[in-house]
Amino acid sequence: MQKSFGIMLTILAFILFGCGQPNVSSAPAEDAAKTIQTEVKAEAAAEKVEEVSPAIEEKLEEVKEKVAEKAAPKKEETPKEEVKKKKRKAKKKRISDPTIKWAETSHKFGIVEEGGQVNHKFFFENTGKKDLFITDATATCGCTVPSYPKVPIRAGESSYIRIAFNTKAKTGAQKPVVTIYTNARKEPFKLYMEGEVIPKLETEGETEEVGGE
Known about the structure:
five-stranded mixed β-sheet
Protein backbone atom coordinates (compact mmCIF):
# COMPACT_ATOMS: atom_id res chain seq x y z
CA MET A 1 0.00 0.00 0.00
CA GLN A 2 2.75 2.44 0.99
CA LYS A 3 4.66 1.33 -2.09
CA SER A 4 1.71 2.09 -4.36
CA PHE A 5 1.20 5.47 -2.75
CA GLY A 6 4.85 6.33 -3.37
CA ILE A 7 4.60 5.41 -7.02
CA MET A 8 1.54 7.64 -7.43
CA LEU A 9 3.38 10.58 -5.81
CA THR A 10 6.31 10.03 -8.14
CA ILE A 11 4.02 10.07 -11.25
CA LEU A 12 2.24 13.21 -10.02
CA ALA A 13 5.51 15.00 -9.47
CA PHE A 14 6.70 14.03 -12.95
CA ILE A 15 3.51 15.42 -14.47
CA LEU A 16 3.71 18.67 -12.54
CA PHE A 17 7.41 19.40 -12.93
CA GLY A 18 8.20 17.58 -16.13
CA CYS A 19 5.58 17.32 -18.87
CA GLY A 20 3.40 20.11 -17.52
CA GLN A 21 6.21 22.72 -17.63
CA PRO A 22 6.00 24.96 -20.80
CA ASN A 23 8.78 24.83 -23.36
CA VAL A 24 10.46 28.13 -22.61
CA SER A 25 13.23 27.66 -25.16
CA SER A 26 10.78 27.51 -28.15
CA ALA A 27 8.89 30.76 -27.34
CA PRO A 28 11.68 33.19 -28.32
CA ALA A 29 12.15 31.39 -31.69
CA GLU A 30 8.46 31.73 -32.55
CA ASP A 31 8.45 35.42 -31.59
CA ALA A 32 11.52 36.04 -33.76
CA ALA A 33 9.91 34.31 -36.76
CA LYS A 34 6.79 36.43 -36.42
CA THR A 35 8.87 39.60 -36.19
CA ILE A 36 10.77 38.70 -39.39
CA GLN A 37 7.53 38.00 -41.29
CA THR A 38 6.09 41.37 -40.17
CA GLU A 39 9.22 43.21 -41.33
CA VAL A 40 9.13 41.47 -44.75
CA LYS A 41 5.49 42.41 -45.24
CA ALA A 42 6.20 46.00 -44.25
CA GLU A 43 9.08 46.22 -46.75
CA ALA A 44 6.90 44.78 -49.56
CA ALA A 45 4.13 47.26 -48.79
CA ALA A 46 6.63 50.12 -48.80
CA GLU A 47 7.94 49.03 -52.22
CA LYS A 48 4.39 48.96 -53.64
CA VAL A 49 3.70 52.44 -52.29
CA GLU A 50 6.90 53.68 -53.95
CA GLU A 51 5.80 52.13 -57.27
CA VAL A 52 2.30 53.60 -57.14
CA SER A 53 3.32 57.09 -56.02
CA PRO A 54 4.87 58.19 -59.38
CA ALA A 55 1.76 57.02 -61.25
CA ILE A 56 -0.48 58.99 -58.90
CA GLU A 57 1.70 62.08 -59.29
CA GLU A 58 1.54 61.73 -63.09
CA LYS A 59 -2.27 61.52 -63.04
CA LEU A 60 -2.45 64.57 -60.78
CA GLU A 61 -0.27 66.52 -63.23
CA GLU A 62 -2.56 65.54 -66.13
CA VAL A 63 -5.62 66.69 -64.18
CA LYS A 64 -3.91 69.99 -63.33
CA GLU A 65 -3.03 70.58 -67.00
CA LYS A 66 -6.62 69.93 -68.15
CA VAL A 67 -8.01 72.26 -65.49
CA ALA A 68 -5.51 74.92 -66.53
CA GLU A 69 -6.48 74.58 -70.22
CA LYS A 70 -10.17 74.99 -69.44
CA ALA A 71 -9.51 77.95 -67.15
CA ALA A 72 -7.20 79.70 -69.64
CA PRO A 73 -8.86 82.29 -71.93
CA LYS A 74 -9.48 81.15 -75.51
CA LYS A 75 -7.03 82.42 -78.09
CA GLU A 76 -8.63 84.76 -80.58
CA GLU A 77 -8.33 83.50 -84.14
CA THR A 78 -6.77 85.73 -86.76
CA PRO A 79 -8.72 86.49 -89.96
CA LYS A 80 -6.53 84.03 -91.87
CA GLU A 81 -7.18 81.26 -89.33
CA GLU A 82 -10.93 81.96 -89.50
CA VAL A 83 -10.88 81.74 -93.30
CA LYS A 84 -8.96 78.43 -93.17
CA LYS A 85 -11.41 77.05 -90.60
CA LYS A 86 -14.40 78.01 -92.77
CA LYS A 87 -12.77 76.43 -95.82
CA ARG A 88 -12.18 73.17 -93.92
CA LYS A 89 -15.83 73.08 -92.82
CA ALA A 90 -17.03 73.88 -96.33
CA LYS A 91 -14.82 71.17 -97.81
CA LYS A 92 -16.06 68.61 -95.30
CA LYS A 93 -19.67 69.54 -96.13
CA ARG A 94 -19.03 69.30 -99.87
CA ILE A 95 -17.61 65.81 -99.50
CA SER A 96 -20.76 64.58 -97.72
CA ASP A 97 -23.20 66.41 -100.05
CA PRO A 98 -24.15 65.33 -103.59
CA THR A 99 -21.62 66.44 -106.18
CA ILE A 100 -21.86 66.65 -109.96
CA LYS A 101 -18.92 65.71 -112.12
CA TRP A 102 -19.62 66.68 -115.74
CA ALA A 103 -18.08 64.86 -118.65
CA GLU A 104 -18.34 68.23 -120.48
CA THR A 105 -20.23 71.50 -120.12
CA SER A 106 -19.85 72.76 -123.68
CA HIS A 107 -20.55 71.00 -126.99
CA LYS A 108 -19.49 72.26 -130.43
CA PHE A 109 -21.87 70.97 -133.06
CA GLY A 110 -19.99 72.50 -136.01
CA ILE A 111 -21.78 73.80 -139.10
CA VAL A 112 -25.40 72.86 -139.83
CA GLU A 113 -28.02 74.05 -142.31
CA GLU A 114 -30.84 76.20 -141.10
CA GLY A 115 -33.99 74.30 -140.28
CA GLY A 116 -32.39 71.24 -138.77
CA GLN A 117 -32.31 70.19 -135.11
CA VAL A 118 -29.16 69.56 -133.09
CA ASN A 119 -29.39 67.09 -130.19
CA HIS A 120 -26.73 66.40 -127.59
CA LYS A 121 -26.48 64.60 -124.23
CA PHE A 122 -24.41 66.10 -121.41
CA PHE A 123 -23.40 63.19 -119.16
CA PHE A 124 -22.66 63.62 -115.45
CA GLU A 125 -21.97 61.52 -112.34
CA ASN A 126 -22.95 61.99 -108.70
CA THR A 127 -19.59 61.75 -106.94
CA GLY A 128 -20.99 62.79 -103.54
CA LYS A 129 -22.48 60.69 -100.73
CA LYS A 130 -26.13 61.82 -100.90
CA ASP A 131 -28.85 61.67 -103.55
CA LEU A 132 -28.59 64.24 -106.32
CA PHE A 133 -31.72 66.01 -107.62
CA ILE A 134 -32.02 68.05 -110.82
CA THR A 135 -34.66 70.53 -109.72
CA ASP A 136 -35.02 72.54 -112.93
CA ALA A 137 -33.48 73.34 -116.33
CA THR A 138 -34.15 76.52 -118.32
CA ALA A 139 -33.00 77.79 -121.72
CA THR A 140 -32.31 81.25 -123.12
CA CYS A 141 -35.01 80.89 -125.80
CA GLY A 142 -37.76 78.62 -127.03
CA CYS A 143 -35.49 77.21 -129.72
CA THR A 144 -33.58 75.25 -127.08
CA VAL A 145 -35.37 72.56 -125.09
CA PRO A 146 -33.64 70.71 -122.21
CA SER A 147 -34.84 67.45 -120.70
CA TYR A 148 -33.51 66.05 -117.42
CA PRO A 149 -34.07 63.11 -115.05
CA LYS A 150 -36.90 63.59 -112.55
CA VAL A 151 -35.73 60.79 -110.24
CA PRO A 152 -32.89 61.08 -107.69
CA ILE A 153 -29.42 60.15 -108.87
CA ARG A 154 -27.85 57.93 -106.21
CA ALA A 155 -24.26 58.28 -105.06
CA GLY A 156 -21.96 56.84 -107.72
CA GLU A 157 -24.68 56.75 -110.40
CA SER A 158 -24.55 58.55 -113.77
CA SER A 159 -27.18 60.20 -115.96
CA TYR A 160 -27.45 62.97 -118.57
CA ILE A 161 -29.15 66.20 -119.60
CA ARG A 162 -30.48 66.13 -123.17
CA ILE A 163 -30.59 69.40 -125.11
CA ALA A 164 -32.39 69.88 -128.40
CA PHE A 165 -31.57 73.02 -130.39
CA ASN A 166 -33.89 73.95 -133.27
CA THR A 167 -32.07 75.97 -135.94
CA LYS A 168 -35.20 77.11 -137.78
CA ALA A 169 -34.93 80.81 -138.68
CA LYS A 170 -31.38 80.88 -137.24
CA THR A 171 -28.25 81.85 -139.15
CA GLY A 172 -24.69 82.66 -138.20
CA ALA A 173 -22.84 81.81 -134.99
CA GLN A 174 -25.08 80.29 -132.34
CA LYS A 175 -24.48 79.65 -128.64
CA PRO A 176 -27.64 78.59 -126.81
CA VAL A 177 -27.28 78.26 -123.04
CA VAL A 178 -29.12 75.96 -120.64
CA THR A 179 -29.12 76.64 -116.87
CA ILE A 180 -29.27 73.58 -114.59
CA TYR A 181 -30.49 73.86 -110.98
CA THR A 182 -29.60 71.11 -108.49
CA ASN A 183 -29.34 70.40 -104.77
CA ALA A 184 -25.58 70.04 -105.12
CA ARG A 185 -24.92 73.77 -104.71
CA LYS A 186 -26.69 77.12 -104.65
CA GLU A 187 -25.16 78.36 -107.91
CA PRO A 188 -26.63 76.76 -111.05
CA PHE A 189 -24.58 75.04 -113.75
CA LYS A 190 -24.35 76.34 -117.32
CA LEU A 191 -24.36 74.08 -120.38
CA TYR A 192 -23.47 75.48 -123.79
CA MET A 193 -24.14 74.48 -127.39
CA GLU A 194 -21.83 76.18 -129.89
CA GLY A 195 -21.83 76.15 -133.68
CA GLU A 196 -22.75 77.94 -136.88
CA VAL A 197 -25.98 77.80 -138.82
CA ILE A 198 -25.80 78.47 -142.56
CA PRO A 199 -28.74 79.20 -144.89
CA LYS A 200 -30.36 76.14 -146.30
CA LEU A 201 -29.24 75.39 -149.86
CA GLU A 202 -32.22 75.55 -152.24
CA THR A 203 -32.67 72.91 -154.94
CA GLU A 204 -33.71 73.69 -158.49
CA GLY A 205 -37.23 72.37 -157.84
CA GLU A 206 -37.64 74.55 -154.80
CA THR A 207 -36.44 77.60 -156.76
CA GLU A 208 -39.00 77.03 -159.50
CA GLU A 209 -41.74 76.56 -156.95
CA VAL A 210 -40.88 79.80 -155.21
CA GLY A 211 -40.76 81.66 -158.56
CA GLY A 212 -44.13 80.32 -159.61
CA GLU A 213 -45.77 81.83 -156.56
